[in-house]
Amino acid sequence: MNNFNPQRICFMFAMHAEAAPLIEKYSLEEVADFFAPLPPKLFKGSHNGKEIFAVLNGQQNGLDLVGCEPATLTTQLVISKINPDLIVNAGTCGAFKANGSEIGDVYLSKAPINFHDRRVGDSGGWYEMGVGFYPCIDATEIAKDLGFKTGHCTTGSSLDMADEDLALIKKNGGELKDMEAAAIAWVASLYNTPLMCVKSVTDLCDGGRATEEEFHENLSLASNNVKDACIKIMDYFLK
Amino acid sequence: MNNFNPQRICFMFAMHAEAAPLIEKYSLEEVADFFAPLPPKLFKGSHNGKEIFAVLNGQQNGLDLVGCEPATLTTQLVISKINPDLIVNAGTCGAFKANGSEIGDVYLSKAPINFHDRRVGDSGGWYEMGVGFYPCIDATEIAKDLGFKTGHCTTGSSLDMADEDLALIKKNGGELKDMEAAAIAWVASLYNTPLMCVKSVTDLCDGGRATEEEFHENLSLASNNVKDACIKIMDYFLK
């Protein structure tokens, strides 16, 4: 990591609320229709000689496109049309009180990044195909230098968890439950594009509260923490 | 539909075993590295003046890439690089004995095409966002003329069903359980590319047998039925 000096950094967000603080901070400007007719949105700018991109999945029917299919589509477009040196999947996540997580905590991802809702078989490599086990960059040193925690991202297409999802999360040591990281990690791995995930905790999956309610209550706090973390990461790579 | 006369027809498959009979029938030739470095594979040829494309999701670690993320990626590539007049998602599916389905039955899709494992909220449009409700072409007349059944495709990322999946399948009238149709339908809808799904039944979700075993036992029969159906569909559009 000491020699890693990305010049074109692309922050990928699922929700506008998660992206807005960073777009404002760096005065990123929207490049209209860059991905048309597809829904993703591109914002770009520069900071101390580095190019900064913020890409959102976009909206349909007035709602942010969350989940794995939009994340897959956006990542393929980002890499083929922008070709960043580094993708930073920035956003919010659920986490587990049992792991010591608290609302607002900021985490960088540890490898591997997994799915927890793709059950396609137990033998012949199908289990591994479903779960994924995708790489991300080793952020141990960055996290230590910047004062963030590190954790394993585990991705599914639902805000809640079926029993089957929780079983796979436990089996694979999932700590940060989100809805995009593994899809982004899969596409990034196909192109060998370096990926880091920075996630702030909006809800505790084992905290006894309704996920949707807790998520909306803490979205603003967590998004602001993600923005601060992204700025620290940008500054880290300027050294 | 009477005036619909597609000239560039792209058959999309998840598994090589599902595609092989059609590739052989029309002597389709592989276009090497067409999607490189990404895993999808393109085969092309022509039949009575129409261009035929067969696209597979490709493989990793020697296994066919099944599921919604590969289907999303492949559909975006197919439309942006081939721009077909019609996508036919051809493959196999699970179905329900309770609906009168039998192993080997051939179905064309009815709209809407849904997801059954994306639970992102119950209000404010989030339920609809998760489930999807994507369009496909009205195949009522084709099915009647060719002797196929019609049914609602419902898509998830797992071979089995969590209780939560079955609840959404029942709620939305899902009849043909597969792992790609809704992802393909979402991307196709973004481009307004016409889509038809042709599916043959490998397993009965309510038949009391293990899905994986029944699936592998009937894959060859169902793939052959899909091939015969695709040929009938091609001939239908030649009229």
Can you describe what's shown?
The structure is a homodimer of 239-residue chains. Chain A is an alpha/beta fold and 239 residues long. Chain A has a single domain (8-238), classed as 3-Layer(aba) Sandwich (Rossmann fold). The first copy, chain A, is built from 7 helices and 11 strands. Chain A has helices at 16-25, 68-81, 126-131, 140-146, 163-171, 181-191, 211-238, and strands at 8-13, 29-31, 41-47, 50-56, 59-60, 63-64, 86-95, 106-115, 149-155, 176-178, 195-204. Chain A has a 9-stranded mixed beta sheet with strand order 2-3-4-1-7-11-8-9-10, sandwiched between helices. A two-stranded antiparallel sheet of chain A has the order 5-6. In chain A, a hairpin with a 2-residue loop joins strand 3 (41-47) and strand 4. Chain A is globular. In chain A, 51% of the residues are buried. At the A-B interface, helix 2, helix 3, helix 5 and helix 6 of A face helix 2, helix 3, helix 5 and helix 6 of B.
CATH superfamily of chain A: Nucleoside phosphorylase domain
CATH topology of chain A: Rossmann fold
Number of domains of chain A: 1
Number of helices of chain A: 7
User: What's the overall geometry of chain A?
Assistant: globular
- Could you tell me the mean pLDDT of chain A? 95
Taking all Cα atoms into account, the compactness measure Rg of chain A is 17 Å
Largest interface: A-B, 43 and 43 residues
Structural class determined from secondary elements of chain A: alpha/beta
Unreliable stretches covering 5 or more consecutive residues of chain A:
none
